[in-house]
Design a protein that fits this description.
The chain is α/β, with parallel strands linked by helices. The protein has 16 helices and eight strands.
Length: 514
Amino acid sequence: MKNIAETPQTEAEIQKLKSRIAELEALVKFYEEQVRLAKHKQFGTSSEKTEYGEQFGLFDEVENEADKKVTEPQIETITYTRKKREGKREEDLSNLPVEIIEYALPDNEQTCPECKESLHVMSKEVRRELKIIPAQVKVIEHVKLVYACRSCEKNNNHVPVITACAPEPVIKGSLASPSAVAHIMVQKYVNAVPLYRQEQNFLREGIALSRQTMANWMIRCAHDWLALIYEHMKCELLKQSVLHADETVVQVLREPDKKASSNSYMWLYRTSGCASHPIALYEYQPTRSSAHPKKFLLGFDGYLHTDGYAGYHCIADITVIGCWAHARRKFDEALKSMPEDSRKGSLSEIGLDFCNHLFALEREFQSLTAEKRYEKRLEKSKPIAEAFFEWAKSTNALPKSALGKAINYALEQRTYLENVFLDGRLELSNNRAERSIKPFVIGRKNWLFCSTQKGAMASSVIYSIIETSKENGLIPFAYLNFLLEALPNATTAQLNSLLPWSASLPSVCRVSKS
């Protein structure tokens, strides 16, 4: 017998069940999106390049560009043979020192086996190989000679004593040398080798150098010397009219009133492509509060490229420039969250194509002057952006779906995204900041955390010096070694000549250009 309790009795109950079914179907669709995104992040390529190429037909380009009066061009097939590049190996080795080892016959064998006359060198056979010399550690004793006068010793009550001059040490009363500290810094902050592994490497070489000692050396040198260069670079940074900013988490184990598992933040501020010399500065802060960029950027009143974080939006006298790469990334994720057979012509693809069109135009404008780029953007790019936002407003999507999140992000950030059209020096994305913060993110995967606030502050200073030196074509080890030798003996007036873009830096600091 059929159970009457299981059968809906009224139309209201039937509608309620249908509504519940629609809810569950939407929920299942949402979970399917999340599973596809999670699989793509785990197993798929990290590239955000569009799989379908640059499809701009959605913007009526065919109708707008078609002209029946234009004749078809003649297709000419050109074939050519690629010539193998000569001298590539010589070019690669041209900057390395060469040690020549000659192999000659002994004097008693330099006679002809036929006529017994003397032989002469007819030619040479040359074989090249790379020789690797591992790092060597040795003790340097700085001996200052002390002088006295023998005549005064015999005849006077007062004997003058004169000591020869020697360079000031980087840390007084310590075994630390500029080269040792520079090596440890480069190993950690360039090669992402944590201190405990460096300690093990030193032990294998027979050197007892604890990680605590190495940490103390880096903190002292960052605080006493490198911070002077950092502050000078910050002054130069704030004079710019266009900057980029970003932030990422860092874990600091021993912070006052905070759990060891809580997040702190490393903030990044850097110059844009229009700057005469690049600068990238990191700043450690215990929170993500907007008070930190407000304080750091005090005195700056230009354009600031950021992601969608609202903490930058309340800074006075600053015009925030939104990141179209972030907007594009969300449509890319929405597309990848869909089944492959339903992606073609989908709303996610339409949104992605709008963004692709803007980036394609930006590549066309890359070689233009800032003034010309500004004009071209207003002519070509701005109408595309306006069409995109009108399309986004008219598109209905579930708020929690990947497409809904992409559309909501774009509409919420519209004011900041459209600010890119205010000046030709501005950039369509904040990728420049993301590239600069990436070395810290990669290093963080290896050393995981900072032990103390002092260590985190020292890390921000050292990262700033290293990344700015790399941006200016310097060798990080050579530049750090030079700074740690020069700064203990330099005057305040000499600091400008020690900055990473200074023309007076020794050539040994610069990457050789072949």
